[in-house]
Amino acid sequence: MTLNARNREARDRQDFQQTGVARVCQGRVPATMANRDELGKTVLTPGELIDTALHPDESTEPATGQGRFVWTETGYDRLTERDVTDIASMLQACSEGETELLFAQADQTRKRFVGDSVHIRGIIEFSNYCMRNCLYCGLRRDNHKLRRYRMTPDEILAASENGIRRGYRTIVLQSGEDLHYSTSDIARIVEGIKGLGDVAVTLSVGERARSEYATMKSAGADRFLLKHETADAELYRRLHPGRSLEMRIECLQNLKSLGFQVGSGFIVGLPGQDISTIARDIALLKLLDVDMAGIGPFIPHPDTPIALYPAGDVAMTLKALVVTRLALPHANLPVTTALATLRPDGRKLALSCGGNVIMPNITPAKYRKLYEIYPDSASLKDPEDGGIGEIALMLETMGRRISQTKGDSFRRKRR
Ligand code: 5AD
Ligand code: SF4
Known about the structure:
- The protein is an alpha/beta fold and 415 residues long.
- It has one domain: CATH 3.20.20.70.
- The chain is 39% helix and 13% strand.
- It has 15 helices and 14 strands.
- The strands form four sheets. A six-stranded parallel sheet has the order 6-7-8-9-10-11. A four-stranded parallel sheet has the order 12-13-5-14. A two-stranded antiparallel ribbon has the order 1-4.
- Helix 9 (275-288) links the parallel strand 10 (261-268) and strand 11.
- Helix 2 (81-92) packs across helix 9 (275-288), helix 3 (96-114) packs across helix 10 and helix 5 (183-194) packs parallel to helix 6.
- The N and C termini lie far apart (51 Å).
- The site of iron/sulfur cluster has 9 residues, from loops.
């Protein structure tokens, strides 16, 4: 590691520790469960601002609108503080009876709105280069211990073809934020994959300009994943040096307005997060009206500035998934690899409390270990042939089955 990088990392760590973001606001919300069948029925009114600061009086945000969700122009619905409080009270449900009821409601809601089919998407992690420096991620720019790789367009197409041959009907192309691949490179790769068969292509390549997203859409990309990571603007700023939640949301809005099926999501257990933050995360998913949402626990990576913080709580991750299913009954909710990494039965667990998508890793074996967002990823165990046979068997034991469709957004079909 160069001296500069080491200094920067030390500064990031110090900056993070000194922020006092570890705020606890349990007790601010009632411990009772919200008296609703389904959050989807919440009455929403269009327009206005939502304050994202947990403690507005302590907020250090400049008066530029940063830290506030401003959606007046786009006409998104508005959730009130009351809605956020209701979500938080569900997340706080802690007696056995309360959580059992919530889990059962989420499973029923999943069955009613998106059915028993489980969509299978094959992920190809095509580059581990990243120009960003997210404090939690092993691919961060300043992690010089990591050996970097890039797959060539031909390698990406070969891996996609392999996945399609094995039965995948969605190919997800994921990478760090790597400008080595120009927008037209990505567009050509998307066109190539679309030429291989009747498949959907999902991109997960980070923040780019609207015009670049437009080029990717024109090339045939169907969906885009860009997690908002945390809906607390201050925490976002600390964890993503040089970036803001506002920029992230702008990208999500651009993607949405271009007609992508949009996936967002967040990390449970980030240092400095509390139940109220998670409630805002779910509220934000609802505000953005996402088609998909990935929710996974934080897993510390030893070569990051927040290596010493504990992993996210599996039970809280599941609860967040459950409440998200209730809040967004039509959404596609994948079982995250991070959850499966912390719990061997994570996939089954998540499928039984709201999840309806599995995203196995179909990256060529020689690259997998290098895509080390966090250590010991469960995806290292995904079989190279795509593992559809094993998944089908597992689903059968749960009375579920692999979907025969591309698994487009249920929300889209409804619109
Ligand atoms: N723990 C859990 N999830 C992580 N991600 C990155 N680093 C970690 C970590 N240490 C997730 C982020 C990102 C996705 C690619 O991986 O949510 O969007
Ligand atoms: Fe890069 Fe994404 Fe990791 Fe951030 S989370 S360092 S953008 S790969």
